[in-house]
Records
---
Amino acid sequence: MGHVVVGIDGSEPSFRALAKAIEEAVLRRADLHVLHAVDMSQALLHLPDDVTVDTRDLADEQRSRVWEAAQPLLKDAGVEVVRVERDGPPGKAMVDYCAQIGAELVVVGSTGRGWVSNLLLGSTAHDVVNSGTCDLLLVR
């Protein structure tokens, strides 16, 4: 059985990518690996130096919100769903995970929540496109 990997970050483009990844997994009779990566270093860049934050709590809260928002799509996916959580930059997390499991296809949205979200290609999609680890489906 093959593996289809999709990254979600809670943005509308990532949920469009999730819907397309579900379709692809069904067509390919593959399992669906839904990856959510949290890069707290980016979130903390904008805080004043005298502010301390429990990054684990923030990451857990963000993960909880994203998985809850994805539930309506995942509950009736019709394929085996593997939930994957990683810390660090999402693009690197996706590339590493796809290589680790020998993914057949990776699906990403064209833009997300990153600082380059107004560009044609978001930073995570850019990282995955340049990796060449497996077939790529970019969802606009």
---
Amino acid sequence: MWPADSDSLAAAQRELAKAVQPRWLPGEAPVRVGGCWVCFPRGLTGRGAAGDPAWAAAVVLEGRKVVDRRVIEGQTGAPYVPGLLALRMGPLMEEAVRGLDLRPDVLLLDATGRDHPRRAGLALHIGAVLEVPTIGITHRPLLAEGVWPEDRRGASSPLLLDDEVVGCWLRTRPGVRPLVVHPGWGVDLESAVEVVKSTSGQRRTPEPLRVSRRLARRARTSANR
């Protein structure tokens, strides 16, 4: 069960931050990389509200091939509040990923990990719930700070929160803004960067997230016709 209010979520996050995690490392065999994305109605502004329509898509890729997908329609559980993203869309993401027939070896999603007031953002939380290694990818840090890396593909630079490295900037393409990589459940920073680089190709956003974002947006368009 996901916490239903901010106080219970904050308590759960503090416990998650202290939890002993299994350690996942990419092996020599091809890795099944999942992606999960949630989108909301076009034109929605501000923080939104509980009950907003939402479309969640989850996919599994082997290399560049999509081998499984799942798209659901639902409602958000709360408005967006920094640090409390799990209240808004944690259950939606869980439902979409659990609906897959193939379990990903590692899951990418648009959320933070240790870059969080209680060191347990949604990328870490959903990994613990699903018992799946996770990596968060965002466009900017939540609280952490660090300078951008040099302008070449694969360059990275650390992001620190209270003198602790909680993630990094990563250039997936030269000449464009770097992404933030957040190690989530069971994944260290080095492995997270390796997965993101291997799934980005010539594009800025890793392919599992690009595909799941596209599917969620298509579902939204179909629902509004």
